[in-house]
Recover the amino acids of this structure.
């Protein structure tokens, strides 16, 4: 287990330009040896297939520990978030500038509520 944690040292983000830019300015941006980034900027023209591919890639990468995804984007690929059962990478939904956070939609909080029988 300790080696798994040492390999996973990056945070990725999928979201609107302002959210992603803010996190990139904080220093989470990374390009690996194959020039793959750990972020995706999403706008109204981003196809659903691109979102799905990025999320799937981030969940399969062994160097990513946490995937941050704006709730607005998460709503578009909710089926993939609901299917993701692994502890690593952990998927966390965050608010965006344009849409406030709605805890009733958050997949992690839904799992916690099921665990506690709420």
């Amino acid at each position: 287990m300790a080696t798994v944690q040492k390999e996973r040292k990056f945070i990725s983000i999928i979201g609107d330009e302002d959210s992603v830019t803010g996190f990139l300015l904080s220093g989470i941006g990374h390009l690996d040896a194959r020039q793959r980034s750990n972020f995706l900027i999403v706008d109204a023209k981003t196809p659903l297939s691109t979102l799905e591919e990025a999320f799937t890639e981030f969940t399969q990468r062994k160097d990513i520990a946490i995937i941050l995804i704006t709730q607005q984007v998460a709503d578009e690929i909710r089926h993939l978030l609901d299917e993701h059962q692994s502890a690593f990478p952990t998927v966390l939904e965050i608010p965006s500038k344009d849409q406030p956070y709605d805890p009733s939609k958050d997949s992690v909080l839904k799992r916690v509520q099921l665990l506690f029988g709420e």
